[in-house]
Amino acid sequence: MYSDEWLVTATVLASAMLLAIGVLTAGDAMAIEKLAYRTIEQDGQFELRQIEPHVVAETFVAGDFERVGGEGFRRLVAYIGGANGTRARISVAAPLVQKPASEKIAMTAPVTQEKVGDLYRIAFLMPSTYTLETLPLPTDTRIGLRAEPMRSVAAIRYTGLWSRARYDDHERSLREWIQRRGLEPVGEPVWARYDPPFMPWFLRRNEVLIEVREPGSATSLGNPDR
Predict the structure, then answer these.
(1) Does residue 110 have a cis bond before it (omega within 30 degrees)?
(2) Phi, psi of 202, deg, nearest 5
(3) Are 25 and 31 in contact (CB under 8 A)?
(4) pTM (2 decimals)?
């Protein structure tokens, strides 16, 4: 039987190791290229943002809200890992460099999920040095490439577990803020996750994003071309 003192010591050591892993992982995550945007307005935990044009790899998955992300993630990881027309590899560990096909290219964040009809759309942001024309073509026909235009979104950021309950709570809060702000929501909300599954839950960056525009306007805020 272990003594109480031994159990306390082991608990402290385990907690310290977990924190160290989290800090190191957070440092790595900070080095990953993230979706570019400009903050138009900040109100506590809420933000109004103008998201820059970008390219994504996307796939559509049927199933439960909390389960479809895993299937979509696996498909897209296979694509950036080399399941593409040029056998180029895309990895979270390497710098972003355009070189021979065997070179690794850094992954980006976030991974997004949104409802589209009866399916969920899971998407990876592609590195900004790529265009729709220069990205290698997926060998998996369930994966497509798409150029996303500039748009304005309302955002709420939170940490914690990837549960439906936490997502629903924050989506509800964001919709209430949009209404108070006098904005018009456009389309379905997007769930954005910036960290890998092994990131400790208390360090994870999660967001709910909803595209918005001024009521009665056909254009997205800050973008007259939309």
Answers:
(1) yes
(2) -75, -5
(3) no
(4) 0.76
Q: Which long-range contacts (CB under 8 A, 24 or more apart) does 219-225 make?
A: 220/150, 220/151, 220/152, 220/186, 221/40, 221/48, 221/50, 221/152, 221/183, 222/38, 222/40, 222/50, 222/150, 222/152, 223/50, 223/149, 223/150, 223/151, 223/152, 225/149, 225/150
Q: What residue type is assigned to position 55 of the chain?
A: V
Q: Which residue has the tokens 């800050």?
A: 222
> What confidence tens digit (pLDDT) does each residue in 89-133 have?
555 433 333 333 422 445 789 999 999 999 999 999 999 988 999
Domain boundaries, the chain: 4-50+150-213, 59-108+116-143
Identify any residues that bridge with 104 across adjacent strands, giving them in sequence order. 89
SS3 144: strand
Residue 148 pLDDT > 70, yes or no? yes
Round to whole Å and give the CA distance between 59 and 71: 9
Query: In this structure, which amino acid lies at residue 198?
Result: F
Q: How far apart are CA 112 and CA 124, in angstroms?
A: 7
Q: How far apart are CA 215 and CA 217, in angstroms?
A: 5
Q: How far apart are the first and last CA of the chain?
A: 68
Distance in angstroms (rounded) separating the CA atoms of residues 76 and 191? 17
Closest C-alpha among 211, 205, 222, 1 to residue 109: 205
Which of 47-51, 174-178, 215-219 comes out lowest in average pLDDT? 215-219
Q: What is the DSSP letter of 223?
A: B
From CA 59, how far away is CA 140, in angstroms rounded? 10
